[in-house]
């Protein structure tokens, strides 16, 4: 049973498709990230998020990205290196009007350059949204 205070956190992890025992890597962490999103993902997968030094095969990569962080396409190519064949990259960006906001078209262009396809962004929190990217080998997300 989920406590009332935990319902929102688990909902965020479920929006990201996080399941128990998934291996999740986090890239682009900085002090502005949403710690509640991070906690929800850790709680749902049952372990801490791995950093850029991890050598595991990843089920999910969470890439916190802000305007001015560099070349998104290059970072996406790096992010998909350890990704499982059916793995997913989520690009987490500040929402419209927030410092560091990234245009969805910029994400889509970088994804295409990296050999990924993107979906429409989803809202994660008051300040952050996420865009799901998958490679050619990944299966589309099933409808429940």
Automatic annotation (TrEMBL):
InterPro entries: DUF3052 (IPR021412). It comes from the Bacteria. It holds the Pfam family DUF3052. This is DUF3052 domain-containing protein. It comes from Longimycelium tulufanense. The lineage of its organism: Bacteria, Bacillati, Actinomycetota, Actinomycetes, Pseudonocardiales.
